[in-house]
Design goal:
Radius of gyration: 21 Å
Strand order of the largest sheet: 2-1-3-5-4
Helix content: 40-55%
Largest sheet: 5 strands, mixed
Distance between the termini: 25 Å
Order of helices and strands: HHHEHEHHHEHEE
Number of strands: 5
Length: 196
């Protein structure tokens, strides 16, 4: 399951059904509580470990550091973490702030607008910073990726690259004078993938 947060609405009904687990005699109640507690500890440990493997707060902070010196108005996170909008205080370039809404085919029927039209509109406004990943998802929308790739090649320069678990977050700023305070991050990342 790609989007584990969709499981959240099931938590309440499952909790109600789990109440039957505690309908045991006094002697066995501590066992039920112990099993539940152990399950919660294991789930929390797995979640924390995955966060560390994927990069976590330090990597996101590095991306924010690459964005801030170049952010003059709008940020467009085409493929990356939506928390970047909040952490940078940036204005949204589109109401579709969750990147996969515009970058992946499976979201096309869900948002109520044509993905390619919206991406063209956003890139025509020339947001001051664009964030992408070097490895798009398998279900990427090739049309929207090509629109972004073309605009980046024409109007932007790469100002940062941060390694996340299996790929890189690439930060692009509009071409022009680079601020003296700009903090350039390692540029070892591969460029955007070729058309497939």
């Amino acid at each position: 399951m790609d989007f584990k947060h969709y499981f959240l609405p099931l938590v309440t009904p499952l909790s109600v059904f789990a109440a039957a687990t505690f309908d045991v005699g006094r002697r066995d109640r501590w066992r039920a509580v112990a099993v539940l507690g152990l399950g919660l500890v294991i789930a929390a440990g797995i979640s924390m470990q995955r966060g560390r493997l994927r990069g976590g707060e330090d990597r996101v902070a590095d991306v924010v550091a690459a964005i801030r010196p170049h952010l003059h108005d709008r940020l467009f996170v085409f493929d990356g973490e939506p928390i970047l909008y909040l952490l940078t205080g940036a204005r949204l370039a589109t109401p579709y702030a969750f990147p996969l809404h515009l970058a992946e085919n499976k979201e096309a029927p869900a948002i109520g607008v044509d993905q390619a039209t919206e991406v063209r509109r956003v890139m025509a406004t020339r947001p001051s910073v664009v964030v992408v990943t070097d490895r798009p998802a398998r279900d990427r929308n090739p049309v929207t990726w090509e629109i972004v790739r073309t605009a980046l090649a024409r109007d932007y320069r790469r100002v940062g690259a941060v390694h996340f678990h299996k790929n890189w977050r690439l930060v692009y700023a509009l071409r022009g004078r680079m601020p003296a305070e700009a903090r350039l991050l390692p540029a070892k990342a591969r460029s955007l993938p070729e058309k497939s």
